[in-house]
């Protein structure tokens, strides 16, 4: 390596070269472990069955896990930067947010598991969350693109799950939710942040139950092979 400045001694040049090598090594290691920034439809278009304990998890399961981590990161940022954690003001907006939830009657639990009914609930719920995630994206408009990334990945996952069942069986997202979103955005900033925390809390719970259902479905399919 040629030195740009002749007045740099040989030992100093060696130290500088070693530091540059360490920095490059760390960058390569970080790039190797980080998940892709986004997923294309082709990457996610794979059959639900055919997985085993010796093979990597399906891409759609990896996507759900990535969504879970990003939502948890946003929740932490909301608490650390805006001090919106557990707050009594939540009760004032609780009744106005009809957020999607996975319940026992949706057939997603081990007891009484019903594949088509469960996937239908997951797909429609993720699609409905798109409206609410726009509120989250607006709240974090100055904190980078993580909230936008979360919404896009959620849409991808909803599309993939929808392909697993009869698409016509998935109800269309209600358009009246748009009016609710406008109302949330028009309120004062503090109330919007409280609403954002509620959305992220329920969204995280929804994704956690989605991950459990997908894992159970993969295990069930493997046992039937």
UniProtKB/TrEMBL annotation:
Its cellular-component GO annotations read: extracellular space
Question: Which GO terms fall under biological process for this protein?
Answer: acute-phase response; cell differentiation; immune response
- Recall the GO molecular function terms of this protein's record: cytokine activity; growth factor activity; interleukin-6 receptor binding
Signal sequence residues? 1-31
**Function noted in UniProt:** Cytokine with a wide variety of biological functions in immunity, tissue regeneration, and metabolism. Binds to IL6R, then the complex associates to the signaling subunit IL6ST/gp130 to trigger the intracellular IL6-signaling pathway. The interaction with the membrane-bound IL6R and IL6ST stimulates 'classic signaling', whereas the binding of IL6 and soluble IL6R to IL6ST stimulates 'trans-signaling'. Alternatively, 'cluster signaling' occurs when membrane-bound IL6:IL6R complexes on transmitter cells activate IL6ST receptors on neighboring receiver cells.
Give the family this protein belongs to, as stated in its UniProt record.
Belongs to the IL-6 superfamily.
Q: Under what name is this protein listed?
A: Interleukin-6
Organism encoding this protein = Microcaecilia unicolor
Q: What is the lineage of its organism?
A: Eukaryota, Metazoa, Chordata, Craniata, Vertebrata
């Amino acid at each position: 390596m040629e030195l740009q400045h002749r007045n740099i001694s040989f030992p100093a040049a060696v130290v500088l070269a070693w530091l540059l090598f360490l920095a490059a090594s760390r960058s390569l290691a970080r790039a190797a472990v980080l998940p892709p920034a986004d997923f294309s439809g082709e990457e996610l278009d794979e059959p639900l069955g055919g997985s085993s304990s010796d093979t990597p998890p399906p891409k759609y399961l990896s996507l759900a896990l990535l969504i879970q981590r990003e939502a948890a990161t946003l929740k932490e940022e909301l608490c650390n930067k805006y001090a919106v954690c557990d707050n009594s003001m939540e009760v004032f907006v609780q009744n106005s947010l009809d957020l999607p939830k996975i319940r026992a009657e949706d057939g997603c639990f081990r007891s009484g598991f019903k594949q088509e009914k469960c996937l239908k609930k997951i797909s429609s719920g993720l699609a409905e969350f798109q409206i609410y995630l726009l509120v989250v994206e607006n709240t974090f408009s100055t904190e980078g693109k993580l909230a936008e990334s979360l919404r896009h990945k959620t849409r991808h996952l909803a599309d993939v799950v929808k392909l697993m069942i009869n698409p016509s069986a998935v109800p269309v997202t209600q358009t009246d939710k748009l009016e609710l979103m406008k109302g949330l955005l028009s309120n004062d900033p503090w109330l919007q942040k409280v609403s954002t925390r509620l959305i992220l809390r329920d969204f995280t719970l929804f994704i956690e139950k989605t991950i459990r259902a997908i894992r159970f479905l993969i295990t069930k399919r493997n046992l039937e092979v």
